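Bench notes, afternoon.
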Amino acid sequence: MGTRTLSVDDEAYERLRRARLDPRESFSKVIKRAKWDTGKPKCGDILRRSEGLPLMDEATLDRLDQAQKEDRAPATKWKR
C-alpha cells in the first residue's frame, strides 16, 4: 500500500487529531471513517462549480426556452 504526503493547516490537523479514537489511530483511518456530505447540490454549489465554464450560446438558450414552453404536467401525479 502506497502513502502520500499531505499538507494541512493547523486547524485541519487539530480536527484530525481530535477525531482519533485513540492516540495511536492513524490519520488515514480517521479520514476513512469520515462521513462526507453527499447531499444534493444547492443552487449556490452549482453556480460555484460553473465558474470559469464557457457561457451557453444563443441557440442552446433558445432550445431550453422552447423546451420549457412545451413542458406539460403529467396526466396523473401517480407513477406507474
